Amino acid sequence: MSTKSGGVAYTIGAYLLWGVLPLYFLALVPTGPWEVVAWRVLLSFVFCCILLTVMRGWPALIAIIRQPRLLGWTALAGVLIYVNWQTFLIGTLTGHVIETSLGYFINPIFTVLLGVFVLRERVRPLQWVAIGVAALAVVVIVIAYGTFPWIALTLTASFGVYGLVKKQIGAAVDATSGLTLESFWLIPIALVTLIIVGQTDGLTFGQISPLHTMLVAGAGIATAVPLLLFAAGTRRIDLSLVGMLQFITPVMQFVVGWALLREPMPLERWIGFTIVWIAIVVFVADLLINSRRTHTGSPVTAPVDLV
User: Fold this and answer.
1) Among 1, 136, 182, 288, which is least packed by CB within 10 angstroms?
2) Which distant-in-sequence residues (6+ apart) come within 8 Å of 105 by Cβ?
3) 3-state SS string over 136-199?
4) Average pLDDT over the chain, rounded to whole?
5) Phi, psi for 263 (deg, rounded to 5)
6) CA atoms within 13 A on the CB side of 252
């Protein structure tokens, strides 16, 4: 398999796994979102430690620990991914899978905005059109549908800024070491969460059935594997191709929420989502045009690269 073909396979694999994650986490009911995320953090850390041992990655991790600047960035990345995970689980386990898909539909366009206002990058005209159309979609959903899509926008913001932080870290931290440290910083939060849940609703891990216990225990692997596949894939293919492939996940999540879970989609919501999809068409068209110009040697503006 060529490097590019392998990169495409890894990346698609990551997006497919993320696309079906709502069904996996729904199988963990009656475990609530706070307990699920707590176990997800702890078990991800354990899984990453096993990976570091198997792959002999401890020296690389120790080298990172000796650099306070990198440690600070990984701590911030950990907080952001925790917010993303917690919001995603709340949305999934409270019947808002469609809204979680909206967040990931908008995320690439929000990433472009971060490039403009934080990294001072230039934006091409079609990208501005996509940003404007996406903003219109949010306004339509808020006004016509009558609810503020806080789950979608929190997912968009947290994952977008997470990508920005990973951009600052760069290649100095490999995928496994990065996820290990991000999970490590979240261990105190996870432990406090489990104590609070245990004192209030009661912990469900190990209390329902052997199958349920195995599924909860697998949350760490379900978290780490797509992240590692994504990291392996994005190192091998162009960012423009990553940008086009990333819509696999929200499309799958939308189909899961609408077709399988039968979440409501009144006319107002269809209108809002249709506007979002128009913005995505414009965004992907810009990626295709820019990629073609790049390969033909025509001058292009600098692409936005946050992840």
Assistant:
1) 1
2) 247, 250, 254, 273, 276, 277, 280
3) HHHHHHHHHHCCCCHHHHHHHHHHHHHHHHHHHHHHHCCHHHHHHHHHHHHHHHHHHHHHHHHH
4) 87
5) -70, 150
6) 17
In this predicted structure, which of 61-75, 204-218, 236-250, 264-278 has the lowest mean pLDDT?
236-250
Could you tell me which residues come within 8 angstroms of residue 224 by beta carbon, excluding any fewer than 6 positions away?
44, 47, 48, 51, 179
Distance in angstroms (rounded) separating the CA atoms of residues 226 and 180: 14
d(CA 219, CA 237): 28
pTM: 0.86
Per-residue DSSP letters for 242-299? HHHHTTHHHHHHHHIIIIIS-----HHHHHHHHHHHHHHHHHHHHHHHHHHHHHHT--
- Estimate the crossing angle of helix 68-93 against helix 97-117, to 10 degrees: 150
List pLDDT tens digits, range 189-229: 999 999 999 999 899 998 999 999 999 999 989 988 998 88
| Mean pLDDT of the 27-31 span | 93
Per-residue tokens: 96: 């808002």
Cα of 92 vs its chain's centroid, Å:
14
Please state, in angstroms and rounded to a whole number, the distance separating the CA atoms of residues 120 and 267.
Answer: 38
Task: Work out whether the CA dihedral 133, 248, 217, 166 comes out positive or negative.
Answer: negative
Interval 255-296: pLDDT, tens: 999 999 999 988 888 998 999 999 889 888 887 887 777 666
Residue 180 reports pLDDT greater than 80: yes
- Euclidean distance between CA atoms 85 and 43, whole angstroms: 14
To 10 degrees, the CA torsion angle through 48, 50, 53, 54? -110
Tell me the three state secondary structure of residue 76.
Answer: helix
Rounded to whole angstroms, the maximal C-alpha distance in the chain is: 63
